[in-house]
Amino acid sequence: MDGNIFEKILGQESLFMNRKIFDHGFEPSRLPHRENEINSLVKNLVDALHGHIPSNMLLYGVPGAGKTVVTRYVLRQLREKGNELNKKVHAYEINCRSVDTKYRVLQYLASELHERGDAVVPFTGWPTDRVLETLVSRMDRIGGVHIIVLDEIDNLVSRAGDGLLYNLTNLNTRLLNSRCCIIGISNDLNFTQQLDPRVMSRLSQEDIVFHPYGASEIENILLKRVEEGLKNGILQEGVVSLCAALAAQEHGDARRALDLLRISVQKAEQNSQDKVETRHVKIAQSQLEYDQVTPVLKTLPLHQKLVLLSICLNEENGLKNISTGDIYRTYADACFLIHVEPLTTRRVSSLLNELDTLGLIIARNVSKGRGGRSKQVNLTTPKAVDCISLMSENEPLVEEAALGKYKLQSKL
Ligand SMILES: Nc1ncnc2c1ncn2[C@@H]1O[C@H](COP(=O)(O)OP(=O)(O)O)[C@@H](O)[C@H]1O
Ligand SMILES: [Mg+2]
């Protein structure tokens, strides 16, 4: 090959004007379709500027509904106003997916309030009560109103219980010279069922539900980014609305829409094309689907894989709406082939529910008369994904089971 191998691609003009506009962490200057949610936050948090305690709040909504970006936006402006008015407002944002234990949350907060000469609170090792004491004394030392945002709080509660929330929602009884308000953000609408009723009533003094975006709302969100992030006129008609429609189907997820558009542009660039076409959006969609389901398939526990394998084998054989009985027969045959003890039908039934929750299958309950119930199961994995070979990677038993011979129910 002539010349340097990077030459060709380096010389190619990018279709992006500013790629950062599509980063997950980018904070847009305007947030259309979230005016009500912003207003509710502002009405409550304005109390902090008066030196009062805002109510604790819970924000709910599906992933990609704008909870994080809206909260950041409001807090940034609150800090700015606080500085301007010389009011002491301190806001902390913690993502409980990465900071996922009571100790680590308290340690993080205490460290944020660290001043020169203070003992360093270690990442592990102190009794949790000592970290809490330290936090309380540091909050009082600096004074003012402290707003603690616990993002993706459902993660922490399902891993570590509600002990942290019990302590944090109780802080105002211990603070002498400062005040504190908790904002919990959850992707899971049912997460409060895991909370002690006392914690629940203290935490959810005010709730905001972020409804899923509709297709036209997502389209507006995208158009703003297109204006700032992409070169003029590179999008073929219909590209934005297709991204919006696909993301609206996917529970109204604005993050998904932005990813779809970014990947579509990248696909066009990779093909050295100067226009992004709807065809690129479809490629982007299947890549996202593939990336989403691949790690899930690879890391399923053995019996989950065997149950899914038996669904795949029956589907490959042309069966639709596969009954629990058929699945169980194939599953038991697979277990026999690889000398593994099969689980009971009841356990397999609950594994089917888990596969449904993971979005790999749809299991519909049907009644069979006389109070008997069964499920009808269909795969929902994208066609481009070869489930069996992904599940077989690093799992010789599944590979072996997949190669076996089965007596399958014939097409009806
Ligand atoms: N109303 C909006 N206007 C502009 N961008 C938005 C809006 N809502 C969400 N986004 C963008 O969509 C993505 C997902 O939003 P995010 O706040 O992270 O969702 P959540 O926290 O609810 O999962 C982010 O990139 C965010 O900037
Ligand atoms: Mg979020």
Report on this model:
The protein has helices at residues 7-11, 35-49, 67-85, 102-112, 128-142, 153-160, 163-168, 197-203, 215-229, 239-249, 254-270, 278-298, 302-316, 324-337, 345-357, 387-392, 396-403; strands at 57-61, 89-95, 144-151, 178-186, 206-210, 322-323, 361-367, 373-379. With 412 residues, it is an alpha/beta fold. The chain has three domains: 34-210, Rossmann fold (3-Layer(aba) Sandwich), CATH 3.40.50; 213-296, Helicase, Ruva Protein, domain 3 (Orthogonal Bundle); 299-403, Orthogonal Bundle (Arc Repressor Mutant, subunit A). The strands form two sheets. The protein has a five-stranded parallel β-sheet, with helices on both faces. The longest helix has 21 residues, at 278-298. The chain is globular. It starts with 6 loop residues before the first helix and ends in a 9-residue tail after the last helix. The relative contact order is 0.10. The mean pLDDT is 93. It binds adenosine-5'-diphosphate (ADP) and magnesium ion (MG).
